[in-house]
Design goal:
Length: 405
């Protein structure tokens, strides 16, 4: 049976190939064709010097692995917001409204105990953030693809979803567009694109927004999707008082029923994604183990040292692992195959450095209680040096063995 859309693409394709008059715009044609049909071509380039894996497969699997965190994130955004609205109404108060409100009234019955209501409310906030991130991000990829005359990398799809999930639900959309622009252009494209960046693009954009607009992106307060309403994060509370006095339990944090960024709250949902990445061997278990060991070691040292003035010293490692963006960063950012370490021994050190740094930042800098974002970026910067050391050491060992023979 004839496929009219397939026939249309086949008729237009010669104009975008070879000496066709629109050949320089082939990356744009390629994007739209691949939206509807699978391509028989695979992304190639320097990214394959390090690994022969198909980058398209890797990116699709990582993208799918974020789905549990994304859907639970939408539910939790709605649950936290509708619970806040219920509390405000019970107290006879009034709440501010923003541009989301007319849509929310159409799709939600404003009941925090209703699953669909919570997901609908959360979707009204998450989908615009993701659409802005996706459109702006893919737009930059198209521009650089046209300039460099190569196909559009599938890596942008993963960067956009990770960036969107790390955003607060009420993030200003113009700041979202600015952040993903900085992440992709400054964090990746100016270094040559996918496979050549040494910083995680999503984290680069997120870090820029944190330092440029701390009032909207700082980690000491959570963002509840009710205009004018905020709630302190577990990390923010921990910097002020003992973690044992918080209104949230460890189980609340593990399951994800706490305020926070869209995709970072549920450890259970994130661990499902980790299982997928480990099973498909996309994520390195050595990096994961290294981060966990570094966290356990450093947190335990601070527990033993103690402090009468800084309650962060007392937080055990298993609490650190369920608070803030720790688990999201560990699973989806630290294991990112381009900016992380590429030697097996180096992956242990790289992971340990991240685990060590996240606790150092959280405990010793209460003004910035999150820490995971900067710890991973610090690990990214050290990754080439770590790999260089182990590669050089292995070469010297082989030379000694050959000389001995």
């Amino acid at each position: 049976m004839s496929d009219p859309l397939r026939n249309l693409f086949d008729r237009l394709k010669p104009s975008f190939q070879g000496s066709g008059k629109l050949a320089k715009y082939f990356p744009l044609f390629d994007v739209f064709e691949n939206l509807f049909y699978s391509s028989d071509r695979k992304t190639s380039g320097l990214t394959h010097i390090r690994d022969g894996s198909d980058i398209q497969r890797i990116m699709v699997v990582v993208w799918l692995a974020t789905f549990p965190a994304a859907f639970f994130g939408m539910y939790n955004v709605g649950f936290q917001a509708l619970s806040a609205l219920e509390e405000i109404n019970l107290k006879g108060g009034v709440f501010e409204t923003d541009w989301h409100w007319p849509i929310i009234q159409l799709v939600s019955g404003l009941n925090p105990n209703n699953l669909l209501d919570c997901i609908s409310y959360g979707a009204v906030y998450f989908i615009p953030i993701y659409l802005v991130t996706f459109i702006v991000g893919i737009g930059w990829e198209m521009i650089f693809a046209v300039i460099r005359k190569h196909e559009i990398s599938e890596g942008a799809f993963v960067t956009t979803i990770l960036f969107a999930l790390s955003c607060p639900p009420d993030a200003p959309l113009w700041q979202v567009a600015l952040g993903i622009s900085v992440g992709l252009v400054i964090g990746k494209e100016i270094f040559g694109g996918t496979g050549k960046n040494f910083l995680n693009p999503a984290l680069t954009g997120r870090a820029f927004l944190y330092f440029a607009y701390p009032a909207s992106w700082s980690g000491d307060m959570a963002w509840v999707a009710v205009d004018g309403y905020t709630s302190a994060t577990m990390l923010g509370m921990s910097a002020q008082e003992s973690y044992m006095n918080m209104p949230y339990t460890w189980n609340d944090a593990f399951l994800g029923f706490i305020p926070g960024s869209i995709g970072e709250t549920s450890v259970v949902a994130i661990l499902i994604g980790l299982a997928i990445l480990l099973y498909t061997k996309i994520a390195s278990w050595r990096i994961v183990a290294g981060v966990v060991l570094g966290t356990m070691f450093t947190a335990t040292l601070f527990n033993m040292a103690g402090s009468d003035t800084n309650p962060m010293f007392a937080i055990p490692f298993w609490w650190h692992m369920v608070m803030g963006g720790y688990m999201f960063g560990l699973v989806f950012m630290a294991t990112e195959p381009v900016s992380g370490s590429h030697t097996n021994q180096g992956r242990w050190v790289y992971g340990f450095v991240i685990g060590f740094m996240v606790i150092m930042i959280r405990v010793l800098n209460p003004a910035y209680p999150e820490g995971m974002m900067l710890a991973i970026l610090f690990g990214n910067l050290l990754s080439p040096l770590i790999d260089h050391y182990f590669v050089s050491r292995n070469i010297k060992q082989r030379v000694r063995v050959l000389n001995a023979e």
